[in-house]
Amino acid sequence: MIKQITSHIMMVRPASFRYNAQTAENNFYQKVLEGLSDEDANKMAQEEFDSFVEKLRSEGINVYVFQDSSEPDTPDSVFPNNWVSFHDDGKIVMYPIYAENRRLERREEIFEILADDFGFKVEEIQDLTHFEDEGLFLEGTGSMILDRENKIAYAAISDRTDFHVLETFCDHLDYEAIAFTANQTVNGRRLPIYHTNVMMCLGTKFSVICMNSIDDPQDRKVVKNALKESGKKIIEITEDQNGHFAGNMLSVANEKGDEYCVMSSAAHKSLRTDQIEAIEKHAKIIHSSLDTIEALGGGSARCMMAEIFLPKQI
To answer: Is the pTM of this model over 0.85?
Structure first.
């Protein structure tokens, strides 16, 4: 039986975290923090990272931490789910990345460590990075929200999420693509949200989603119907809450199989009581302060976790 959530999470501890001008071209969640040196930014990000990992592990979630190195220079390495995904049939998928300096984050030696040191079974590596040569991108489970049980890939099309690459992924892994456009208001203009996982997440029985970001009524109807038909309780958030990363959540399990919904403290603070109660009907909430990572990186809790669904070696 295919599972929607896992108790195994890969995370990368940053070595040179800072504001990345290359990603800021279309990530409108990033902010410049005046007066903060790159060294201090990285130190604060490491402290947030360590605290976050400790909270996950304290609940019985297996976190595999890989320390980044200062060379090559990878300011966004803390967000590994954009370059890799791990699947329960033993497949690993590597993805084409928009920002050139983010392509340096890919570390295939991690796959060997997961297999040799932790007993995960790797059957095949599906490499989609060649699409970078065509200027086409699909940034992993940032670009796609995977309903693994029902084999649906929800994807908001943007500069970083190309429909052709999405179709290629779906053909290779036998998923159905549900593509749409999700927007945010930037200086009075409606512009595409850079990653689907900023406005949507899936648990086993629920979905947190910013429906108001989907401007097209037909797109909204298709997404809503697909969620309902797959048995997901829809918990809507506002665009303002979306701006506080309330859509950037991830459902995970602990070793006992209990479900948790993981988010930042900023996201949690933005939620209404009724929304929190709706989530807690399905999952216990874990939240941790990620203020520096969110501001400079334009990503949050979900972006920091790459789920490992690989089977264990016998």
So the answer is: yes
